[in-house]
Amino acid sequence: MEKDFLFVEKLKKGDYNAYTLLMNNYYKNLCGYANLFTKDPSKSEDIVQNVFVKLWVYRKKVDSNIPIKRYLHKSVYNEFIDQYRKNKSVISLEEKHLRTINTIIDDNSYDIEKLMTRVNNEIEKLPEKCKKVFILNKKEGLTHDEIAEYLQISKKTVEGHITRAFKILNQKLGEKIKSILIILFDFKLTNSFK
């Protein structure tokens, strides 16, 4: 925390080396984080670039008491929301998704990267067929029908594997982790826990 404070103080005084170091340390990670929302690497880079431009322009207003990593993640999220609202009207399900993301970012008890790593580790531990169906649906975006055809199994079997995967993940990760699953697997997940 003290290191963050000193680093931000240098940035606020216009230390370009501190700014460059910040970009070198966080740019790639923030692009990956932005991509969770945009699902588009090009848009993600635009968002992160905008965040760093604004960081430099408004550096004197940066709060030294907030860890810089959390500040940057929150800035990326806010930039995503700004761009999203300019380009698309928000329907109620998407609003719920965005509120969930905002709650996670505002909750200091979350370390988003650690939680995402934990979720991905638990996905890797799923039974093999269950994991394959889950990944095809939630990460690759295939429909139940497409998975059934691809794997030569019934649609009911596909649904069973996905339900089983969510049940296992919910047991292993608990209630609090649902928010991370919503981020990782887009809006579709909201109906999967009902």
Tags for this entry?
194 residues, Rna Polymerase Sigma Factor, Chain: A, 2 domains, elongated, disordered C terminus
Report on this structure:
This protein has 194 residues and is mostly helical. The chain has two domains: 2-88, Rna Polymerase Sigma Factor, Chain: A, CATH 1.10.1740; 112-192, Winged helix-like DNA-binding domain superfamily/Winged helix DNA-binding domain (Arc Repressor Mutant, subunit A, Orthogonal Bundle). The protein has eleven helices and no strands. It has helices at residues 2-12, 16-38, 41-57, 68-87, 92-106, 112-124, 128-138, 144-151, 155-173, 178-184, 189-192. Helix 4 (68-87) packs antiparallel against helix 5 (92-106). The chain is elongated. Residues 186-194 have low confidence and may be disordered.
How many domains? The number is 2
Kindly report the name of the CATH homologous superfamily of the largest domain. Answer: RNA polymerase sigma factor, region 2, helix turn helix motif
Largest sheet: none
What is the CA-CA span between the terminal residues? 40 Å
Helix content: over 70%
Alpha-beta content class = mainly alpha
Which stretches are poorly predicted, pLDDT < 50 over at least 5 residues?
A: 186-194
What can be said about this structure in brief?
By secondary structure, this protein is an all-alpha fold. Helix content is 76%, strand content 0%.
